[in-house]
Specification:
Layout: E1 2-7, H1 31-43, E2 47-52, H2 57-64, E3 76-79, H3 92-100, H4 109-116, H5 118-127, E4 135-138, E5 152-156, E6 166-168, H6 171-185, E7 189-193, E8 198-207, E9 210-213, E10 217-219, H7 230-234, E11 241-242, H8 249-265, E12 271-278, E13 284-290, H9 300-307, H10 312-328, H11 344-354, H12 356-367, H13 376-392, E14 396-400, E15 408-412, E16 419-426, E17 440-442, E18 445-447, H14 451-470, E19 479-484, H15 495-502, E20 505-510, E21 519-524, E22 526-535, H16 549-564, E23 569-579, E24 588-597, H17 600-615, E25 625-634, H18 641-656, E26 662-666, E27 681-682, E28 689-690, E29 698-700, H19 703-718
Parallel strand pairs: 1-2, 1-3, 16-19, 16-20, 20-27, 21-26
Antiparallel strand pairs: 4-7, 5-6, 5-7, 8-9, 8-10, 8-12, 10-11, 12-13, 14-15, 15-19, 17-18, 18-29, 22-24, 22-25, 23-24, 28-29
Helix pairs in contact: 1-10, 11-14, 11-19, 12-14, 14-19, 18-19
């Protein structure tokens, strides 16, 4: 990954700003510290460029940082710049990154602005019932507060690293201290109740809900009334410290929870340090937070990280990693070596859980692309998106160009004739150009067009393949993937390809969503689609002002009556169109009908009944012409012995994953309907979902990880 490390110089160069104006920052990293971080990032495998955070920053970044919209891998800014001058200096570089659209480590402008203002920090802490010492704000040395109780500690409200801090125990010294600090720092002064006792510093790395609280560091002050000054912090190695602090498990847990609450309440990201004091009675108070905690080797953050087992390099790369996950849902760092002694289900789930946000972003992109079966451009666009992902995983592609629908794509990750396993799914949906329901989340559900029928399954497949690659098992599986583009048409164009590649595979897997009970599809209905055209002569003497419409009504009524007796079949009228020649009374009509059936014999019976109803001559309509066109057909899937054995394998793996599955009979047909008999084929390996082809089509959020991990295990078992 390309990483821009941004820092600021100790002295302002007039060429770096338009005007030298306002308060200048007192905080800087030394050149050695900047170089140390750059080396750590380079050891992590990144291309690093060190850039000064001045007025030329945007131009420097424009040249170096990748342009994600052009398809390049994203880069990150590793911000070590505290700002040059003015107010809220911590916010300057993050705000510029927000404007430029560049990802960066650390908190956003709002979080930095609140934390840098010690008064605002304390207000937020108080509002969230997080203990912090009482305080008063002095705008002038003459301000008076009747409730002020000595001793107090005096400090400028917008500075860090203990600048200006002083403990006083009377009004004369307080006024002198306030006067001195106002003149020096040109800002309001925070006067805070001084807590006599022990002092602690606690580092945090991560983002909710995965925040790592590092071991507690105690600052060994030597006396309960002592404070840590800026000169103490600038000493080589800093103040003497103890880590982990010698406190009870209960106090450690209390500190941990206070840190997490404060981190969340103040809206911070990626890493921070929290400073505490504990009085003689064991009461804990948060003094302040530092949203840009020192990354120096003598700082409390690294001191705690060493105790937790980090090296300096791994700490720096960890901070970059958690920021990358926050932005992209996955780490773009070189993957850590998986523990291959662990079962695949554990390795896969761990990987998938940390990459869930990335999977969801992929799913969002799929769902928000309208891939109606005849929207060939968008279907092919989705195919290209998947093609890039599959090639990245080591799959080669064979493209079957189509004219009437989108291009069918076949991938495999090996050079042999036969597959261990063939995955079949489709990219088209039935949603028309005006029917698209965009991706949105509501509690534990994710909604969107095609999300359960196909696009959730495609996302699960990619997650499973990535998890297998991460666990170094993907190359051990001879895997084929066939992505069709005519599922809405019953596989009219892809049928032969499904049959061809299925015969070359030991197992066949479909990616339709699972039922609400976790159902794996072992059987599904067949389907016949009919387009029936009725015509009467335009000058028929028996026609009335309604023309052919009464006849059409009788046919539909007969179908409705037949539908009421449904058992192991389903009839649906999907379209009715009646028109007249040259604007006259309707004399021809088209009826579109779908029949789903459980067995081949029932399919033939229903075909006969439908034809009988449609061809029956109605009274007074001797000249009625009926043309029945069976526009598509799919045979039913009947569970065979090979399917049962395959299901038992999946069931065994599901138990190890602690997932509930069951045999499911699906009324809607799928691509596995075209798989030749006696080949082990199961469908329903997508996420748990419901309400196919409706405005309420959804999947369950948590099932993305669960089903991806299960699919990874099934694919690997198929190679055995």
């Amino acid at each position: 990954m390309k990483v821009s490390l941004i820092y600021n110089e100790k002295q302002i160069d007039p060429n770096d700003v338009i005007n030298v104006f306002g308060m200048t920052t007192k905080e800087h990293y030394s050149p050695k510290a900047v170089e140390r971080v750059a080396r750590a990032l380079e050891k992590g495998g990144h291309a690093v460029k060190v850039i000064e955070g001045d007025m030329h920053l945007a131009d420097e970044l424009r040249e170096f940082m990748p342009k994600v919209v052009s398809g390049e891998n994203p880069g990150m800014v590793f911000n070590m710049a505290y700002g040059i001058q003015g107010q809220n200096r911590y916010t300057h570089v993050p705000a510029m990154m927000e404007m430029l659209g560049i990802p960066y480590i650390g908190s956003g402008p709002a979080g930095h602005a609140i934390v840098q203002d010690k008064v605002m920090t304390k207000i937020v802490l108080q509002r969230n019932n997080i203990p912090t010492p009482g305080f008063w704000v002095f705008k002038t040395p003459e301000d008076v507060f009747d409730d002020l109780v000595f001793p107090v500690i005096v400090k400028p409200k917008l500075e860090s690293t203990s600048m200006g801090m002083e403990v006083v125990d009377n009004w004369n010294d307080l006024r002198k201290a306030v006067k001195t600090q106002i003149e020096k720092f040109q800002q309001d002064i925070l006067v805070e109740q001084f807590i006599s006792g022990r002092e602690f510093a606690v580092g945090l790395i991560g983002n909710s809900p995965n925040i790592e609280v590092l071991p507690v560091v105690e600052i060994n002050l030597g006396h309960p009334d002592q404070i840590q000054t800026i000169s103490d912090k600038k000493k080589i190695g800093g103040v003497d410290k103890t880590c982990p602090a010698k406190i009870s498990k209960e106090k450690t847990e209390e500190i941990k929870q206070m840190c997490i609450q404060a981190f969340a309440a103040l809206g911070l990201n990626d890493y921070s340090r929290v400073d505490f004091r504990m009085d003689k009675d064991g009461n804990l108070y948060i003094l302040e937070l530092n949203s840009m905690a020192s990354l120096g080797i003598g700082g409390s953050l690294f001191y705690a990280a060493k105790t937790a087992g980090y090296t300096y390099e791994s700490l720096i790369n960890k901070i970059l990693d958690v920021a990358t996950i926050r932005y992209f849902g996955s780490s773009h760092l070189a993957e850590t070596e998986p523990d291959l002694t662990q079962p695949l289900r554990i390795v896969a789930r761990t990987y998938l859980r940390s990459h869930l946000q990335s999977q969801k972003e992929t799913l969002r992109n799929f769902v928000n692309l309208n891939t109606h079966v005849y929207n060939i451009d968008n279907v092919n666009k989705l195919g290209s998106m998947l093609s890039r992902r599959m090639k990245h995983l080591g799959f080669s592609e064979h493209l079957y160009r189509q004219l009437d629908v989108g291009d069918i794509r076949y991938f495999k990750n090996h050079d042999e004739e036969k597959n261990d396993v063939l995955i079949i799914s489709h990219m088209d949906t039935h949603y028309g150009p005006n029917d698209l329901i965009s991706y949105f989340e509501d509690d534990d559900r994710i909604y969107g067009s095609g999300i359960a029928e196909s696009k959730g399954g495609l996302t699960v497949m990619l997650g499973a393949l990535h998890a297998l690659r991460y666990s170094k098992r993907l190359k051990k599986i001879k895997c084929g993937v066939l992505l069709t583009t005519d599922d809405s048409l019953g596989g009219r164009f892809s049928k032969k390809l499904v049959q061809q590649y299925s015969r070359k595979s030991k197992y066949i897997i479909g990616l339709k969503s699972a039922s609400k009970e976790g159902g794996i599809i072992t059987t599904c209905y067949g389907r016949n689609d009919y387009q029936i055209r009725f015509t009467t002569p335009p000058n028929s003497t028996s026609s009335d002002i309604h023309g052919i419409i009464p006849i059409l009504g009788k046919k539909i009524a007969a179908i409705e009556k037949l539908s009421k007796d449904e058992k192991n079949y389903r009839l649906r009228t999907t379209s009715v169109v009646a028109q007249g020649t040259h604007g006259h009374t309707p004399n021809y009509a088209t009826l579109t009908l779908v029949c789903s059936f459980k067995t081949p014999a029932l399919g033939k019976t229903m075909d006969s009944k439908i034809r009988t109803i449609m061809q029956k001559k109605e009274s007074g309509q001797k000249n009625l012409e009926v043309a029945i066109n069976q526009i598509q057909t799919r045979p039913p899937v009947i569970e065979e012995a090979s399917d049962k054995r395959f299901y038992e394998i999946v069931e065994e793996l599901a138990k190890k994953h602690e997932l509930k599955i069951k045999r499911h009979e699906q009324i809607m047909s799928s691509d596995i309907s075209n798989v030749p008999s006696r080949l082990p084929a199961l469908d329903g390996f997508g996420p748990i979902g419901h309400r196919y082809r409706s405005t309420q089509e959804y999947i369950l959020h948590d099932s993305i990880v669960e089903r991806s991990a299960l699919l990874a295990s099934v694919l690997y078992r198929c190679s055995k």
